[in-house]
Amino acid sequence: MDIELKDLYLKQAELDKTIAENHSIDYPSTQKRRSLALLVELGELANTTRCFKFWSNKGPESKERILDEYADGLHFILSLGIAIGVKETAYHVEDDDLDLTDALLLAYDNINEFIKDNSIKNYFTAMYSYLLILYKLGFTYEEAHEAYLKKLDVNYKRQETNY
Q: Are strands 90-92 and 2-4 parallel, antiparallel or unpaired?
């Protein structure tokens, strides 16, 4: 699956600018909080899939809810990339032997490596693993893109209403 994120990086940069102006913040002052927010959103995504809940017979939440949580995390991982000056916006994600639980754990590991060392290489690996989750969820990039845009509108409304 080939994924081009240039338009989302641009949209996220605009949202980040609005948030920075509204809250008198910048990328360096929010780096740790954005990193933690990404991990929290990844946990919320995992919770909606219920893929790790071996003790339960209850299935995953709705497709819309899962995509909404995925989009939340996408906002933060894009923002983290913008903060370090990522220029590469194209990704090629291939299927592998991982199941969804393994893919989520891989994303946690790779995001934590990026948090420890904010290198472009570590970011690219973290983003790749985040995009791999989309593949494992069985969603298309187009579905994730649409969910991102929907959440983007929500986030702008939140800024307008002093959320």
A: antiparallel
The helix or strand, by DSSP H or E, that contains position 1, with its residue range, turns out to be none
Element counts in the chain: helices (H) and strands (E):
6, 2
d(CA 114, CA 130): 12
User: Which of 141, 36, 51 shows the shortest CA–CA distance to 104?
Assistant: 51
**What is the mean pLDDT for each group of 10 consecutive residues in the chain (163 residues)?**
94 96 92 97 98 96 97 98 95 92 98 97 97 95 96 92 80
- Helical H runs in 50-162? 63-83, 100-116, 120-137, 141-160
CA gap 49, 42 in Å, rounded: 11
pTM: 0.95
